[in-house]
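Per reviewer request, we include the raw input and output of the structure prediction for the construct analysed in the revised manuscript.
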Amino acid sequence: MKDRDPSTPPQGGSNEARLEAVLESISDGFYALDPDWRYVVFNRAAEEYFGVSRDQVLGKVIWELFPQGLGGAFERACRRAMDERIGSRFETPSRARDDRIVELRILPMRESGIAVSLSDITDRRRVEDALRASEARLELATQASGLGVWEWTIPTGDLIVSARAREVWGFPDGEAMRIEDIARVAHPEDGPGIVALSRRALDPQVRDHSAYEYRVPQPDGAMRWVRAQGEPVFDPESGAAIRYVGTVADVTAERQAAQEMRESEARLRLAMEAGGMAVFQLGTGGVLQGSPELNRLLGLPADATPSVQDINAGYYPGELARMQEAFREALASGSPKLEIEYRYVWPDGQVRWLMVRAEITLDADGEPQSVLGVVLDITQRRESEERLKLLAREVDHRANNLLTVVQATVALTSAPTPEALKEIITGRVSALAHAHQLISEARWRGADLRRLVEEELRPYRLGAEGRVRFEGPDVTLSPHAAQSAAMALHELATNAAKYGALSSVSGEVSVSWDLADDHVTLVWTESGGPPVAAPSRRGLGLNMLQRALGGATGGEAVLDWRESGLVARLSLPLPRAD
């Protein structure tokens, strides 16, 4: 550009005029200096930036008007362009305006002089600095949370991922990635699901933002669980998705922890069910947090949601007041612990014994805030305790009765010699002992008739089981009836061994019984022994038999002295249903 007198306006049709028109239209500040460092061009944008008019600067030396430009990078760049004809471009704080940052472009002009253009990039630098700061914060946040960041350019298929995302997916650093690579590393069974969910996200009619989890097999055979979630960007004109930006995280530890939690809860549930136990929490305002286990202990369906009032209605009469009194006593004593056993009535009428162990939480004012505890079903334990008490009383009662029977047996027994007396007493006491043993094995609830017959006739079956046969249904006799039956069987067996079928090698005894209404009828039949005749007088043994079945027992004995052998019919009462 040739130097011209600044006061002479350019001709409208000249190239110089057209160039000046262009310079006036641009937004960047522009000025030109001749070899003597005088301003020869100064456009409107430069006027606005420096706050001076062109009339004030044209023809003037730059270093005189702006001496602050001397001695820095700006002066060096200008002289290099002027002397060495080498241009430069750089960013620097403005020497003319301290609060601004400019980008300078200093170029040598074709014939002589230099051209300088400047762009105020202060706002752009602030945006860039804010963006870098935001990216730094994002990087810190993703590092702290373990998240990886990814961006998929949908039209090209290119994928930009952060270092953490590469680590999660297992891709090496620096390797270019495409969206197909994600499907390649995913478990084959999960691939179709990933495709389906991403299609829903990118569908402008659906725009599903749900996260999706899938497996990524590792080289060592382990399985990594990954969770991805993204936000699509849609073209405002076409409506099609053009970018997909999101995060990816390794959730393997989270999945394992969740699985362990489920297994732990399952074990706890099994333990509580096995132990007849349930957990509950009663919060402020009487809000109950129950559980299926608690419903089961209260006789309710597993999915029931009973209120406190509903539960209170099931207490056995008087038990709710006792529970409330125990609660007040715990508060008054300063102890947050509460333990009480009480009866509860199920909807079907069953009465269950429950035990509560709870801890009371107090607020800052010392008022009850919540109650956390467990409920246990102790019905079986309480019933066992009651049975033990009854059993103890029964043992005392039976022992007294047995001693009375033994005393009466000894008193009523006679024999011609002491040895014979000893033998008779020993046999009768042994019969009582057998019955007593069977009764005690059944926890004093009675004795099995078959076992009783077997024990009493065992000595006569040894080596000759065919001589003594017995059959009949399963029958449980009351303790009284069992003692009586034992005595009667002993007397019949002793009589058969001395005088009846068991006194002969060919003799046989058959014992059978059957049920009829409220009693059992036992038939003792002898055969194959010596001829039998009714005794001329009733002996002591027969008296003992009649005494054993009569009296308090309420039984009966009928003896039929047939010539072929004795047939005895014994009637024994069955235990009452209660």
